[in-house]
Amino acid sequence: MLQPSAASTATATTTSTTTDGESTPRYGLANLALCALGICVCYLYYGILQERLFTGRQRLGASFVLTTQCVTNAIVAWVWAQVEHSDKQDERTKSKASTPPKDPNTTTQSQSLHHWLLFVTSGFYVGAMACSNEAIQYVSYPVAVLAKSCKLIPTMLVGQLMESKLYSTAEWSAALLISTGIVLFHLTRHVGTIGSAEKDQSTYGMFLLLASLGMDGVLSSCQNFLKFPRNKTAHRSPTAVETMLYINLYAVVYLWPMCVHNGQWSDGVLRLQSEDSLVTAILILNATVALGQIFIFLCLTWFSPLYTTTITTTRKFLTVVISVLLFGHSFTMTQWFSVVLVFSGLYLIIAVQRTKSLHGKQKED
């Protein structure tokens, strides 16, 4: 399941920003530990529930589950926005007495959110999620997790095409490590162990994962366009809660008609009415992912995408291990070596970004 990558559009309003775009945290280790614990616990548990709902006896349609999740996330974001708005109103009331009156001749230009870009971003967000969740029916969950772990590659490729970004040799080396690990894992997973029909299914599953990764790449560029608007006089960057609210709200606009068209909506509602255990499972699933999104948005706002990427990357490795233990997926030594390659590449990317961040701070000093 795609984590809320749309979260990276959040504006770190409580952090200072360096010249290269990284933010310097003003919060302590206790808050960082809280975010890390919240993200890991929520998404580890979410991964277990998701594999059971999409592959086991309780299997539900992917678009139906995603629709219910986005509705839940939008409701949670709306409540969060109301609380945040109430707090800001209180702060304004308290500061009115100490604030000097504004010059009546001064004019201010209001900026609006770029809703069309938010809508397009949400479309790629939905497409990436739908493809990855559909792929779980044709490939094992560890394969899906590892494949989604290499989203840095399409992000770099699309970023170079759409945003004219340049990447270092170390960054491309990391991408090569990730690609090699993914290919090696997939080849050794299936050589001599499956028949032609299963190979066809596996090929289709990998095609879905590739499509999901491609949409992740475009999504990342859309997120950067949201975070750093080209027309700054007309549009402003969305805050964390605004991103969570509108990305999920627009996602429902995409998902619900799809759900109705493919019959998953009526089938899902009927099954929920007849199976109480499914109602409990999907409520827990949605609550878990909504809580996980909150921790991700808080981590982005309090710290930076660098910290968030480190936490979620570690979480992905733990997800693979737990899935192997709980669902009987067996790994050979070669496959474990490929896992090491993938995550070594990911951490190399993170180390490079950390180095860039430190250089940015030195330039400021």
UniProtKB/TrEMBL annotation:
Keywords: Membrane, Transmembrane, Transmembrane helix, Transport. Residues 1-19 have a biased composition (Low complexity). One of its GO terms (molecular function) is UDP-glucose transmembrane transporter activity. The chain crosses the membrane at residues 27-48, 166-187, 207-226, 238-257, 277-303, 315-331. It is a multi-pass membrane protein. It is found in: Membrane. Residues 1-22, 89-109 are annotated as: Disordered. Its main location: membrane. GO terms for cellular component: endoplasmic reticulum membrane; Golgi membrane. Pfam families: UAA (PF08449). This is Sugar phosphate transporter domain-containing protein. It comes from Amphora coffeiformis. The lineage of its organism: Eukaryota, Sar, Stramenopiles, Ochrophyta, Bacillariophyta.
